[in-house]
């Protein structure tokens, strides 16, 4: 059935697999996407939403590079919010509620429209490896499909084990089989594997809920969108979410089931994410809190299915049901399905290179939860990077690596391969040293040029970026050069309780004041004339505002980042011998030989490597 | 990586030697020193030729700190290959610190261990065979030096620094909390709370900086632990060592100390005897051999004197002692260890020979009769002269901490301004992180993982 050799085979079609397949195929690689069930491409296994703080920035980065997640999200969104709008621009974070079924459909249709991408439905149960190099995959039917590279994106499917109360059964997701064979084969090859845990809340029938007892949570009045492309449009209509609270009574009911909770009776031993705790974990660890928020999120435009965000649980289904019934608005609740916890295999990501290629098997790439991460956005971005690098490897081109000061994606991958992770890894803005540089408004400036060079971002994308850049730069220059008279600006300043000026001054200085916004500046005649004359759109105005108001901070972070680049330029040869270097601490030697950092900057981020170890390395590397 | 900042450090061993040399190296070395040096002939340092020496005073605004000789070396014709100034000043710890602190405030950075040599190497001034030696030097300034530094601080200061860091970390966590977890149902600190916290941090930082500036914080001298069983004569030995030296100790210019009795200077080098109060009060010492307690003392010391009572030695006891000495050597192979047999005046010469045969390099002494006390002092001094000890540790610690605190305060002042101006947390976080980084220079490292860990431990996060 498969006679030709593929360039790239992607195993798994979740968020990571779908982005990987799209990227590789769009870069001209002959690509095959294999998944256990082609009806389940790009499932939102957990909450029906994309983006959020730090994650929204990642989606924008994926889009800027030419990935699909942003477009798919825009086309299937039912609600949009820009979070953290009251904070500085580095914190503005787009988030969308999605129509789960349309999201998956959009993805499938976009993949089907992608040239040189083939599909096949079957379970991959083994890899073909010859002389330390990947040569293809083996399926459960015994087929051998040859390829130059393979990207594994197995999600929670590797030896997945689902827990509900004291029951457990194999499965990769509710109602889907687990995948077996791959972990065992990789461990035999010398890979280290571990177990992680995650959970999901019950889904319920929206018709059984009383929304009048809840607080309505509408989307933004003027919704934005994810993709930088003009092809997608902001929502005209939106669906609201709702919020309600648990109560002491609910907590008591949940506690009754603790003795049957796999979390507490020791049945689940693996580590779950601390920032996404189950409801039982929350009431156990924070016993003094007498209520917790629950977000009631519709699963789509038309479906009645509702996602109960905040109620992730693996307690017995009867306990889940009884407790949820005591929540305001849920008195008559009908379950679609109970919440559950799932344990699955992952491979500590310190076994990877920055390209997400494994150090052990040449041509084999890992992306997504298999690397110990959590979240659609984290998975999708890794898939994109693995797909890009697999294609580059086949084409014998230079690898593609994003630095920590270039993208959250760079922070994510560098953290994973340098520090590893003890719990499912999720992105936070605080993980980035230079978050003021990594904003959602400038992901296109940062990444579209490289995306275009890779052959991934379209010409149209590049032109749109250049246009925005050129226009905003010119507008900033206008503020630098143009003065405003006191009689014109002072009424505006008085209104904002900002101190007035005595003589005419450059507008840049006034605009840079903390409480003065673009809306205020637009009241100056010359500004509004400039805007209409140059036909400046919302994106240009936003970009200009950010760059004027935060210039000092942006420049400070830039110069801090440049210092880091000093160490980045000191490369460490791949075969560097640490063993003989008795001047390095024992711990540093062990960690460095294991992780094998590519430059001194990466080495300095490994825990247990001290500044003096770095200086010692500097001496040896200058030899 | 070519460093582009200017570094300063003491180039000669600290202590009360007659002359000390402070070395400044870097692109700005000469221009930083110029306004701080008042030549007796009104010469400008930047106008001077390389390899020239000038007499004058180091002045801090209008205050004369010391009369000095300043040598000018222009890169690449200097030890480091960079512009270099060497200030030869009088050998008082107080004066050295004042001059170094002045340089720090004017744009220099404290040199790390071996950094002059590292720069010399990077600038191609050293040959390849010297690289090993440079690496050795740097490696000796490891994590342990942070610990040592904290231990050198007097009484409450090290605790105060730890607490301050803790508070800063909490503050940073509170800021990060409202950034990364804005959507969560947790109570965020309001701006007034933040302001109170920042002002407290400012206050404590300023007080600490003042204390560092007058040299109150650091205990001077190389820490020496005298260990041994109870009643072997530790206090007698200490008294014998201290006896005629006390007067000199109290003579050090400008140093203010609460107690001086445990510090003494031998041949211009300061030594400090650790935890001697405990040692003197024999009731305080555990009655067993108490290896654990012994280790704790050794941990804090750079030199160990292991004292035994030669009169009490039975064969069985001797075996026990040898095991214990073996343990110490095993655990601290780098630390100079002197085994001293006390009360030898009462010992028959045949026993002395036996003792010398049993324990290698044993030092014979009678504290009471003052036998072997001087040679013990000579031994202590020889460790410094042969390079087994670095005795400018304290001055490095002191100025390094001063530098770090100064920079931390600068950042905290910016945060304070940010709070007043109503800045968003993500922008203030830039300065707070920088402040935490400077604290890390005193206490060890801090990563963003600490912040997240702190948040998860204290707040109920997550949907």
TrEMBL record, chain A:
Its cofactor is FAD. Gene3D superfamilies: FAD/NAD(P)-binding domain, GidA associated domain, C-terminal subdomain, tRNA uridine 5-carboxymethylaminomethyl modification enzyme MnmG/GidA. Residues 548-619 form the tRNA uridine 5-carboxymethylaminomethyl modification enzyme C-terminal subdomain domain. Signal peptide: none annotated. It is found in: Cytoplasm. Keywords: Cytoplasm, FAD, Flavoprotein, NAD, tRNA processing. It comes from the Bacteria. One of its GO terms (cellular component) is cytosol. HAMAP family: MnmG_GidA. Pfam families: GIDA, GIDA_C_1st, SAM_GIDA_C. This is tRNA uridine 5-carboxymethylaminomethyl modification enzyme MnmG. FAD binds at residues 12-17. GO terms for biological process: tRNA methylation; tRNA wobble uridine modification. It comes from Kordia periserrulae. NAD(+) binds at residues 272-286. Homodimer. Heterotetramer of two MnmE and two MnmG subunits. GO terms for molecular function: flavin adenine dinucleotide binding. The keyword rRNA-binding does not apply. Belongs to the MnmG family. The gene is mnmG.
From TrEMBL, chain B:
Homodimer. Heterotetramer of two MnmE and two MnmG subunits. Its main location: cytoplasm. This is tRNA modification GTPase MnmE. Gene3D superfamilies: P-loop containing nucleotide triphosphate hydrolases (3.40.50.300), Probable tRNA modification gtpase trme, domain 1 (3.30.1360.120), tRNA modification GTPase MnmE domain 2 (1.20.120.430). GTP binds at residues 231-236, 250-256, 275-278. It comes from Kordia periserrulae. It is found in: Cytoplasm. One of its GO terms (molecular function) is GTPase activity. Keywords: Cytoplasm, GTP-binding, Hydrolase, Magnesium, Metal-binding, Nucleotide-binding, Potassium, tRNA processing. Exhibits a very high intrinsic GTPase hydrolysis rate. Involved in the addition of a carboxymethylaminomethyl (cmnm) group at the wobble position (U34) of certain tRNAs, forming tRNA-cmnm(5)s(2)U34. InterPro entries: AAA+_ATPase (IPR003593), G_TrmE (IPR031168), GTP-bd (IPR006073), GTP-bd_TrmE_N (IPR018948), GTPase_MnmE (IPR004520), MnmE_dom2 (IPR027368), MnmE_helical (IPR025867), P-loop_NTPase (IPR027417). Binds 1 potassium ion per subunit. Belongs to the TRAFAC class TrmE-Era-EngA-EngB-Septin-like GTPase superfamily. TrmE GTPase family. The keyword tRNA-binding does not apply. GO terms for cellular component: cytosol. Mg(2+) binds at residues 235, 256. K(+) binds at residues 231, 250, 252, 255.
């Amino acid at each position: 059935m498969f006679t030709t050799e593929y360039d790239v085979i992607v195993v798994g079609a979740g968020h990571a697999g779908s982005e990987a397949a799209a990227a590789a195929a769009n870069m001209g690689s002959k690509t095959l996407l294999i998944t256990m069930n082609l009806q389940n491409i790009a499932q939102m296994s957990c909450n029906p939403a994309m983006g959020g703080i730090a994650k929204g920035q990642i989606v924008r980065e994926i889009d800027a590079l030419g990935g699909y997640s942003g477009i798919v999200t825009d086309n299937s969104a039912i609600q949009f919010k820009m979070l953290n709008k009251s904070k500085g621009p580095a914190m503005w974070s787009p988030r969308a509620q999605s129509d789960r079924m349309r999201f998956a459909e959009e993805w499938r249709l976009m993949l089907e429209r992608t040239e040189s991408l083939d599909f096949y439905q079957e379970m991959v149960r083994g890899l073909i490896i010859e002389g330390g190099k990947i040569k293809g995959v083996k399926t459960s039917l015994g087929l051998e499909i040859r390829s130059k590279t393979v990207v594994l994106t197995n999600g929670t499917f590797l030896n997945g084990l689902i827990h509900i109360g004291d029951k457990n059964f194999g499965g990769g997701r509710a109602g889907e089989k687990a995948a077996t064979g791959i972990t065992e084969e990789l461990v035999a090859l010398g890979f280290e594997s571990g177990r992680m845990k995650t959970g999901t809340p019950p889904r319920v029938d929206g018709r059984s809920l009383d929304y009048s007892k809840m607080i309505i949570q509408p989307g933004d009045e003027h919704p934005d969108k994810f993709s930088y492309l003009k092809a997608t449009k902001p929502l005209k209509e939106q669906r609201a979410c709702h919020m309600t609270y648990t109560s002491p009574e609910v907590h008591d009911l949940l506690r009754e089931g603790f003795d049957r909770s796999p979390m507490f009776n020791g049945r689940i031993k693996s580590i779950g994410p601390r920032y996404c705790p189950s409801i039982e974990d929350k009431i156990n660890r924070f016993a003094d809190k007498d209520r917790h928020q629950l977000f009631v999120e519709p699963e789509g435009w038309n479906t009645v299915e509702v996602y109960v965000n905040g109620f992730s649980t693996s307690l017995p289904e009867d306990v889940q049901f009884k407790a949820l019934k005591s929540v305001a608005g849920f008195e008559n609740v009908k379950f679609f399905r109970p919440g559950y916890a799932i344990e699955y295999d992952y491979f500590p990501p310190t076994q990877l290179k920055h390209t997400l290629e494994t150090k052990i098997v040449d041509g084999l790439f890992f992306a997504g939860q298999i690397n110990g991460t959590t979240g659609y956005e984290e998975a999708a971005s890794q898939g994109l990077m693995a797909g890009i690098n697999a294609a580059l490897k086949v084409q014998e081109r230079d690898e593609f690596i994003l630095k920590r000061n270039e993208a959250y994606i760079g922070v994510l991958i560098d953290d994973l391969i340098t520090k590893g992770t003890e719990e499912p890894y999720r992105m936070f803005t605080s993980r980035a040293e230079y978050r003021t540089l990594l904003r959602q408004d400038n992901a296109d400036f940062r990444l579209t040029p490289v995306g275009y060079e890779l052959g991934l971002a379209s010409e149209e994308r590049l032109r749109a970026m250049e246009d925005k850049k050129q226009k905003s730069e010119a507008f900033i220059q206008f503020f630098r050069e143009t003065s405003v008279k006191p009689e014109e600006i002072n009424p505006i300043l008085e209104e904002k309780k900002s101190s007035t000026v005595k003589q005419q001054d450059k507008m840049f200085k006034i605009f840079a004041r903390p409480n003065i916004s673009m809306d205020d500046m637009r009241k100056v005649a010359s500004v509004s004339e400039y805007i209409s004359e140059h036909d400046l759109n919302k994106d240009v105005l936003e970009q200009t505002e950010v760059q004027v108001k935060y210039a000092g901070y942006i420049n400070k972070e830039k110069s801090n980042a440049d210092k880091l680049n000093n160490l980045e330029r000191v490369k460490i040869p791949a075969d560097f011998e640490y063993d003989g270097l008795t001047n390095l601490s024992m711990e540093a030697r062990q960690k460095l030989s294991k992780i094998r950092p590519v430059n001194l900057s990466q080495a300095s981020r490994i825990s247990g490597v001290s500044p003096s170890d770095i200086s010692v390395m500097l001496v040896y590397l200058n030899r | 990586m070519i460093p582009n900042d200017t570094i300063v450090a003491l180039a000669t061993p600290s202590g009360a030697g007659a002359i000390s040399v402070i070395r400044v190296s870097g692109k700005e070395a000469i221009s930083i020193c110029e306004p701080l040096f008042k030549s007796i002939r009104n010469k400008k340092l930047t106008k001077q030729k390389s390899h020239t020496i000038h007499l004058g005073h180091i002045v801090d605004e209008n205050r004369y700190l010391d009369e000095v000789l300043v040598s000018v070396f222009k890169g690449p014709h200097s030890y480091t290959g960079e512009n270099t100034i060497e200030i030869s000043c009088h050998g008082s710890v107080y004066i050295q610190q004042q001059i170094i602190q002045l340089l720090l405030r004017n744009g220099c950075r404290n040199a790390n261990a071996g950094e002059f040599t590292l720069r010399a190497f990077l600038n191609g001034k050293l040959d390849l065979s010297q690289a090993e030696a440079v690496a050795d030097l740097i490696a000796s300034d490891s994590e342990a030096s942070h610990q040592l530094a904290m231990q050198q601080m007097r009484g409450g200061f090290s605790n105060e620094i730890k607490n301050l860091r803790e508070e800063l970390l909490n503050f940073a966590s509170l800021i990060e909390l409202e950034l990364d977890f804005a959507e969560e149902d947790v109570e965020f600190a309001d701006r007034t709370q933040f302001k109170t916290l920042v002002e407290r941090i400012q206050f404590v930082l300023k007080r600490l900086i003042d204390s560092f500036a007058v040299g109150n914080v650091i205990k001077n001298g190389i820490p020496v632990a005298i260990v041994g069983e109870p009643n072997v004569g530790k206090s007698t030995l200490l008294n014998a060592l201290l006896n005629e030296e006390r007067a000199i100790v109290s003579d050090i210019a400008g140093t203010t100390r609460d107690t001086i009795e445990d510090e003494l200077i031998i041949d211009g080098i300061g030594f400090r005897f650790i935890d001697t109060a405990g040692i003197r009060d024999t009731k305080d010492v555990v009655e067993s051999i108490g290896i654990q307690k012994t280790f704790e003392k050794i941990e804090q010391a750079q030199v160990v004197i292991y004292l035994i009572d030669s009169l009490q030695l039975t064969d069985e006891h001797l075996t026990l002692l040898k095991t214990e000495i073996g343990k110490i050597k095993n655990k601290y192979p780098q630390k100079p260890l002197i085994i001293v047999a006390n009360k030898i005046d009462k010992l028959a010469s045949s026993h002395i020979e036996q003792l010398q045969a049993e324990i290698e390099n044993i030092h014979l002494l009678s504290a009471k009769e003052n036998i072997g006390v001087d040679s013990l002092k000579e031994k202590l001094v020889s460790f410094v002269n042969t390079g087994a000890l670095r005795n400018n540790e304290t001055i490095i610690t002191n100025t390094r901490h001063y530098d770090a605190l100064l920079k931390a305060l600068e950042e905290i002042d910016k945060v304070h301004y940010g709070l007043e101006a109503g800045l968003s947390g993500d922008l203030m976080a830039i300065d707070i992180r920088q402040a935490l980084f400077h604290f890390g220079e005193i206490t060890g490292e801090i990563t963003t993982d600490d912040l997240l860990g702190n948040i998860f431990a204290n707040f109920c996060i997550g949907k």
